[in-house]
Amino acid sequence: MVQPTNVQSVPTVLGRSLGVAAIDPVPIFRDGLAGLVHRTHGMHWLGQASSQHGAMQLAEQLHPDVALLDSALDPNCHLTRLLCAGDPALVVVLVVRDSNRAPQYLAQAIAAGAHALVPRAIDPKRLSEAIRRAHADRRYLDPTFAALLGRLKRPSAEGRVPLPRMPLSRREYQVLQLIAEGLENSGIAKLLFLSVETVRTHVKSILRKLSARDRTHAVTIAFRSGILVTAPDDAHNVTPLNQAVTAPAPR
């Protein structure tokens, strides 16, 4: 896949080094994660994204081994589900904020495919270990969450945790995100490397699936139903659309 001009290729890293990326709306937190990965033997930093749309681009363009995802960007676990479905090799580590520590949310995240759950206030050494264990075992649960999940009663006879409905495909989800950010079909086509006609087809499908009258109505329905979510209060800096994904320059 052709990468946007602002996304630069990362040199090949030999051995067992893990490529790690972050999806988080807070610049200082992303920088802190990057610093931790740079200091950790056996890991290398691939890049970062600050939005749901950026997360999809990051997964498609940079192919990280591990993605650290802020739970504030995924309160209904739609993004986790789409990321895991799009790349079965990707390990998603959900970095859980205090506002998302409810047992039901933790169970939904696991059901959606999250490979690891860690608190946002986790100690750096523990986070490094969690990343390694999540990649090696494809499962890691921080001890602080084990007791919370133990209190959760089985929601059905099959013991399955119901997930919020997500009627859209990965590409439709991206297109809807960009519609919500104010882009017209031509701008969406340029950003996603699609033809305008293909974007029109996706828009028609979105309107049909959401039973929406028009684009504005579709966005309204998506926010009301939780398919789209507003940025958290601490997301002070909005990344420009043409810089949704950033990667380190070759050294």
UniProtKB/TrEMBL annotation:
Q: Is tRNA processing among this UniProt entry's keywords?
A: no
Q: Does the keyword Membrane apply?
A: no
Top-level lineage group: Bacteria
Q: Which SMART domains has this protein been placed in?
A: HTH_LUXR (SM00421)
| Protein name, as recorded | DNA-binding response regulator, NarL/FixJ family, contains REC and HTH domains
Q: Which organism is it from?
A: Amycolatopsis xylanica
- Occurrences of domain Response regulatory (ranges): 19-135
Q: Which GO terms describe its biological process?
A: phosphorelay signal transduction system; regulation of DNA-templated transcription
